[in-house]
Structures are given as C-alpha cells and as structure tokens.
C-alpha cells in the first residue's frame, strides 16, 4: 500500500481539497508512477461545474500528466522502473478492432474511463479511509503518486521536460490533431480556430505546421488573442461576428476551408455561427466538450446540404496516443512545435484551486502543477 497526497473533488460546485489517499501496489498490467507534472485542462472543470456528471465522488482529477515509473506489476513489458512516461486518458489495449486498425483513440477500454475500479481488473485500488476514490478518466494526475494501467502510459525521451510531456499527453495532441488529422489542413488553406485555450492554440500551431496560409483566431480574451498571434495565427478577432466580415474580405467570399471549435464549452447556439465561417465543401471540427445532457444542435440544414459542408467530431485529435505523443515531442525537440510557451504559470498541488481560478478568468493559456518539492 502506498500513501499519497492528492487533490480530491467531493462533488460538483466544490473546490478541490488536498487529502492523503491510500493506493494499492501494482498488480498485473499496472504501473506505479511518481508524478512530476500535470496540466490544468478545462475538461476537469466540466466535472467540477457539473456540466459533465460524474458517477462517483470523491474523485482525483487531472488527466494530462507525466512522471517516472517507480514500480511495475507482473506482465508489464513496455516500461521499467526509472523510465519517463506521459499519461494518456485514452487507453490503448492493443487488442480491440480499433487499436488493431490504427485507431487507438477509439479503444474499447475507453468505456471504462469513468469506472471507479481499475481499468485492469475492476477492483477498488484507491481509498480515503474506507471510502472508494475514483480517478478522472482513470488517470487522476493531481496526485504525488498514481497507480495506472500500462495501457494508459507512453514511454518518452527522458530529456523532455516534465511539463512539456504532461501537456503533450492531452491538450497539445488534441488541438494539433484537430487541425492536422481531423480538419486535414493543407498548404494554402484558410482556417479558423474558435476558442484559444491550450487546445485552441495547439490547433493554431497544427494549422501553421500543416501550411495554412490564413489562420483566424477567435476569442473574447485579449491576452489569448495576443498569444495566438505568437503561435502562428495570422489574424485575431474578439468575436465570430467580427471575424466573419474580415474573413469574407480576405478570402474573396470563399470563407474557410476548415473551422475548428475549441470553445471551453460547446453549446448548440455556437454551431451555426461556426458553420457560417466554413466555406463550400468545408469542414467544421467539433473538439470542444458539450454539456452532457445537450442532445440538440442548431443549424441551417438547407444551406448545410446545399453547400456540401461536413461536421466532424474529434476525440484526442483523431490519432493514437502511442504514435502521437512521441511524434509531437520530436517536433518540439526540433523547435517546430512550441510547448514551453504554452505554460503561462506553474502551481504547486496546494494551489490547484488558484490555477483553475486563473484559467476561468482567462489569465493563462495553460497552467501546470509541478511536484519538485514532493517527498521522494
């Protein structure tokens, strides 16, 4: 049994509380991680706000992280103690049809993401006293130590900074892949990115690296618009309405080849405005998470059909974590992909609530919790 400090959420609308959690030692197919860094992603805020109802509390949040392997259980073959790993909330079982066909982002083990028990055998392996503790998407990175399934970690180059590895594991991969894989941005394209958090700015970078000629960044927060221009956007606007007129002029009325929705929360009223920026035969990519109960989307169906447009959902940038994470880190090491610059501020575990307050206020692109001072 391992004791660890972790940030727990006890219910929607509450702040995180730091508690000491007891964790099992690793069993078959499991790995004990010394967590070194994790990102403050808006997806965890959906759990805290109640927009995404969680089946069990208390819960350790955090789903993009990196750390060092402390101990491995039987049958673990991809990592050994001392290895550096990135955590992926998308598991890769390696056996299901989706994994075998190169679409591990749709791995069937994803159905277990919000189970209370371990993804490996279903047992309760995390406890607060006698109470079971869940982990957000089977990761729970807001913890000094964490027990994970081997299928949710990816070995990485030990020279990569911990915060960089953490951000690549979710936000950077998701945003970058939204542009490169799902929107299929091509050289010379005109692209709009709506919402400029960590995912949106990573989509801007993906569009830039893919060769887009025009990249329109849209967000009401001036700081985020300024940052998007640093990361490769050619134009920035405070609203879709403001962007529409400029895009129409700059594209001679053709509008955008693709539009990527990276809003903090995707609501039905945002879809038609996004489609209005999408040109004929264009693609509108929905990467944003919508409220769980939202079943209806508003759009002009007649124009949608008559202009041959597409709407595409996008999970994890439509790519396999085991191939995407190393590839993106190679781009980072080559100086092509900016990740250090995404991290506006770092926090200690005890400052997790401050980090989310800064995120909500638009003061940061991405915050990261670091664990340098945690006892080893």
Automatic annotation (TrEMBL):
PROSITE patterns: ADH_ZINC. Residues 13-365 form the Enoyl reductase (ER) domain. It comes from the Bacteria. Keywords: Metal-binding, NAD, Oxidoreductase, Zinc. CDD domains: Zn_ADH_class_III. Its EC number is 1.1.99.36. Belongs to the zinc-containing alcohol dehydrogenase family. Its cofactor is Zn(2+). It comes from Frankia umida. It is an enzyme of class 1 (oxidoreductase). GO terms for molecular function: oxidoreductase activity. This is NDMA-dependent alcohol dehydrogenase.
């Amino acid at each position: 049994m391992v004791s660890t400090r972790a940030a727990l959420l006890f219910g929607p609308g509450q702040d995180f509380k730091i508690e000491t959690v007891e964790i099992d030692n690793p069993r078959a197919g499991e790995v004990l991680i010394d967590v070194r860094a994790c990102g403050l992603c808006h997806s965890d805020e959906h759990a805290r706000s109640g927009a995404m109802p969680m089946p069990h509390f208390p819960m350790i949040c955090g789903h993009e992280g990196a750390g060092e392997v402390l101990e491995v259980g039987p049958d673990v073959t991809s990592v050994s103690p001392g290895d550096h790993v990135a955590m992926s909330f998308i598991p890769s079982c390696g056996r299901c049809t989706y994994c075998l066909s190169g679409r591990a982002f749709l791995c069937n083990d994803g159905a277990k993401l919000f189970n209370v028990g371990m993804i490996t055998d279903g047992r309760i392996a995390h406890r607060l006293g006698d109470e079971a503790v869940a982990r957000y998407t089977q990761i729970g990175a807001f913890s000094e130590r964490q027990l994970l399934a081997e299928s949710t970690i990816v070995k990485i180059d030990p020279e990569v900074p911990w915060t960089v590895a953490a951000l690549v594991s979710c936000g950077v991969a998701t945003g970058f892949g939204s542009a490169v894989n799902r929107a299929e941005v091509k050289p010379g394209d005109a692209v709009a990115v709506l919402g400029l958090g960590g995912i949106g700015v990573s989509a801007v970078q993906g569009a830039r690296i893919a060769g887009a000629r025009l990249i329109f960044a849209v967000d009401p927060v001036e700081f985020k618009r300024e940052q998007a221009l640093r990361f490769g956007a050619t134009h920035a606007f405070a609203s879709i309405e403001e962007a529409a007129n400029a895009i129409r002029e700059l594209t001679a009325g053709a509008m955008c080849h693709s539009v990527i929705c990276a809003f903090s929360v995707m609501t039905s009223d945002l879809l038609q405005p996004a489609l209005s920026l999408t040109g004929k035969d264009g693609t509108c990519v929905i990467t944003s998470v919508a409220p769980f109960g939202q079943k209806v989307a508003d759009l002009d169906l007649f124009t949608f059909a008559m202009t041959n447009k597409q709407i595409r959902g996008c999970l994890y940038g439509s790519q396999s974590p085991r191939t995407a994470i190393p590839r993106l880190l190679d781009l980072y090491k080559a100086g092509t992909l900016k990740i250090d610059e995404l991290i506006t501020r770092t926090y200690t575990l005890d400052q997790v609530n401050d980090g989310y307050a800064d995120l909500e206020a638009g003061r940061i692109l991405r915050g990261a919790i670091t664990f340098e001072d945690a006892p080893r």
